[in-house]
Amino acid sequence: MSFAALPAAWRPHVERNLPRYTSYPTAVSFEPAEGETEARRWLAATRADQTISAYVHVPFCRRLCWYCGCHTSVFHEYDRVRAFYQTLRLEVDLWADAMGPHAGAAHLHFGGGSPNALSPDDFVGLARHMAERFRLRPDAEVAAELDPGMLSDAFIDATGEAGVTRVSLGVQTFDPVVQRKVNRIQPFEQVEGATARLRRAGVRAINFDLMYGLPGQTPENVAASTAAAVTLRPDRVAVFGYAHVPWMKKHQVMIREADLADVAGRWEQAEAADQTLVAAGYVRIGLDHYALPGDSLSVAAAEGVLRRNFQGYTDDPAPVLVPIGPSSIGRFAEGFLQNAITTDVWGREVEAGRLPVARRLAVTAEDELRAAVIERLMCDLAVDVGAVCQAHGFDPSTLDGSIAAAAALQADGLCVVEAGRIRIPAAASRVMRVVAACFDTCLPVTAARHARAV
Ligand code: SF4
Questions:
Q1: Residues 276, 413: one domain?
Q2: Residues 145-198: tens digit of each pLDDT
Q3: How far apart are CA 142 and CA 140, in angstroms?
Q4: Is 90 helix (H, G, I), strand (E, B) or coil?
Q5: Cβ atoms 326, 339 nearer than 8 A
Q6: What is the best residue among 72, 81, 155, 169 to mutate for testing ligand 1's pocket, by most ligand atoms within 8 Å of CB?
Q7: 19: Cβ below 6 Å to ligand 1?
Q8: Last residue of a domain, one of 265, 293, 324
Q9: Ligand 1 centre and the CA of 353: distance in Å?
Q10: pLDDT digits (tens, 9 = 90+) for 128-139
């Protein structure tokens, strides 16, 4: 639906600041951790019949893109990255030694920054060390986010040696004018070549990340970039909106505010990407993902078992996520743990033999219940609230107050509420967070710290 055709009642919702609900409660609710004792207790409580996953954050890049919102820095001498790699190996040992019984790792995810800031040998060394220490299962997914502009042939060979099954390439835009405005020069041929070489190296699945809301972007050049991207048949595409927060990310001052679209323009850009992807045969997944019909994300969505975690949408069912590297967030049955943000503090803790945990949040049974409802809304655009309450051992009326808040949105056409069941129409999927927020009791405190809904 075009912005001009949106019901007038939607406008204030579109401009709200809301979480992306990659977790509930969200990271802004985390509290300072007092030492590592609690983390070690949570870690020892893993279950022998459950798989685990691990996320590794590599906080280095070979270039700085001016839109970047990640924890990263550009390195000039590899010695710094090499020292980081050695510390990472120690950290893997710390977590693995402290962990209770488990059924092996079902999913390893390398993100950043750019994991290809590591040398090919160090990347393979890290992947093998993790596979050994976390007992990687033969059917596991090993995923890596890579910067295609800095991807060497040697690193592509290393992905094969490391057993990488899925690669996410940061494409963002193919428009040369927009690329110059964000300091990320990356011709189509470079992404095309990287995609072909990764497939030849044995990487089974390729994801692309695209963006809207960047300086100089228009619905026309977003549609053109998306159309070019789908000619390479990525298995999944994620479409993210640029969040302009130069008071938090200093390098974003390089982006001229006059070059940024307003909310109507951002909506039209997101719509242009959506229409291009759907016309090319991709299945809409949740808020901002698209996948080919045979991809495991489409299959999980069709079967109602799609999950939402810190990497976005996933089919990974593991209940435990081990955080590796500075700023990484982990998930355990008892709650969330986040590692120290800065590489220096993180490194000092690891080298002293301590888990580098800086923030934590223990979750209550009601948090778990609300998280489950929000996750189903974000994944399925529908939820039977009473059934989720009962599955979590609560009275079916426990969330009636939140259901009433959702019912108040019904008149605006954002959802349909009937006998405790909530459904978000496809036309309102871009503002699904407005409905999910009805179940968020932290929002009155955290709202100002989230980005715009569109
Ligand atoms: S390559 Fe990725 S992580 Fe690194 S600066 Fe660019 S956007 Fe940020």
A1: no
A2: 999 998 999 999 999 999 999 999 999 999 999 999 999 999 999 999 999 999
A3: 6
A4: helix
A5: yes
A6: 72
A7: no
A8: 324
A9: 30
A10: 999 999 999 999
